[in-house]
Amino acid sequence: MLVFINDMNIKRIIKEEFENILSEGLSKILYHYTHISNLFSILKMNKFATSSNLGSVADAWKSGGKNFFFSTSRTKGKSGYGRNHGTVAIVLDGEKLNQRYKGFPTDYWNWSTKRSDYKSDNDYMDVLKSKELEDRVVTDKPYIDNAKDYILEIHIQTSSYRNFIDKGEVQEILSLAGNIPVYFYDNENDFRLQNKAKAIPPENLNVLDKIERRDEKDELERSISDVKWFFKKVAPAIIGKNDMNDGFNDERDAIEKILKQCSEEYNFAHQYEDLMAEINKKAEGLGRGWGYVDDEYYVMSAEIHNHRGNPDKYIRELLKLLINDMKKWRVKNLKDYFVKKFNMYVPAR
To answer: 20 to 30 A from 308, CA-CA: which of 32, 85, 198, 286?
Structure first.
């Protein structure tokens, strides 16, 4: 008989996960785990940024033919997905989500749950706690709009990173949340179990008055760098070969418009012409089969995967253009897109 020593909560919650994962559809109550910076983004935009599966074969297999997904858990975060994905837990109305979105339970790694497959109780316990059991909401859109309509509660742990939030930010979260209840904890176990009886009143939180952070200029420069690099690695494939019939390229026109607007908002308009010229040159090369198409595929796949949850609106717009172009070429994944559009060679197995 397997005994979980000194952690009956883990035993109970893991048992609950395995029982719940057998049922179909989204659970009535769901939990989304994230980080404090993402919480600010969610509350300010009133949107959940979904993750693109285009850069991951594993995610594409588990997304029901949709191009974006949103990870949630059926149970509180003592194990699986919720155990490793941040110190903010957002409690969601699964029934309301189910009215608008498709969703289903999934086990990301599909590891065995048989005790006999492991050498020791400790190995078995580690696997159970690490299994990526989640309820995956799938969609063809890069956002789930009206996020606050689905949020029932917000739980925040402050003890892991004592200085990760200051008093002003606590008040900003409460203001942005409005009527949504927000609970703060200085103990990880209380946070994981969402033990409201142990929640700390905002005015009693042991946090600094003001945290010295990277200034806004540094943050903007990093965002600009990310967006420019993403456009350079993704836009050429969208443009390439799409003017081969009539000499016009609607995709190029759309990308020029988005990048122009982005460059003006992010204050790099003086670089727009050079950046667009670089993108067009790469697009021409892909269209003519110059260079190594498979290298471009792997680079583009990695770039999309690295920014799969980036909420930047210009990155999201470019992903939408990519998905539209994939539909135009009648393919469902990035590999088939490169094979059909650019004649990428895939070695036979």
So the answer is: 286
- In this structure, what token pair is assigned to residue 47? 């949107």
Residues 63/53, Cβ–Cβ less than 8 Å: yes
Whole-angstrom Cα distance, residue 290 to residue 267? 33
Rounded Cα distance between 262 and 258, Å, is: 6
Could you tell me whether strands 88-93 and 29-34 are parallel, antiparallel, or unpaired per DSSP bridges? antiparallel
Q: How far is CA 137 from CA 69, 106, 129, in A?
A: 6, 10, 22
The identity of residue 146, as a single letter, is: N
Residue 202 backbone dihedrals phi, psi, to 5 degrees = -50, -40
> For residue 279, what are its two tokens?
């993108």
What would the pLDDT profile of 153-201 be if each residue is shown by its tens digit?
Answer: 999 998 765 447 888 999 999 999 999 999 999 988 899 899 999 999 9
Q: Phi, psi (5° rounding) for residue 184?
A: -115, 145
Question: Are 242 and 250 spatial neighbours (Cβ–Cβ below 8 Å)?
Answer: yes
Query: Which of 264, 280, 281 shows the shortest CA–CA distance to 227?
Result: 264
How many CA atoms does the CB half-sphere of 32 hold within 13 Å? 28
Q: Which residue type, as a one-letter code, is found at position 126?
A: D
Q: How large is the greatest C-alpha to C-alpha distance in the chain, in angstroms?
A: 71
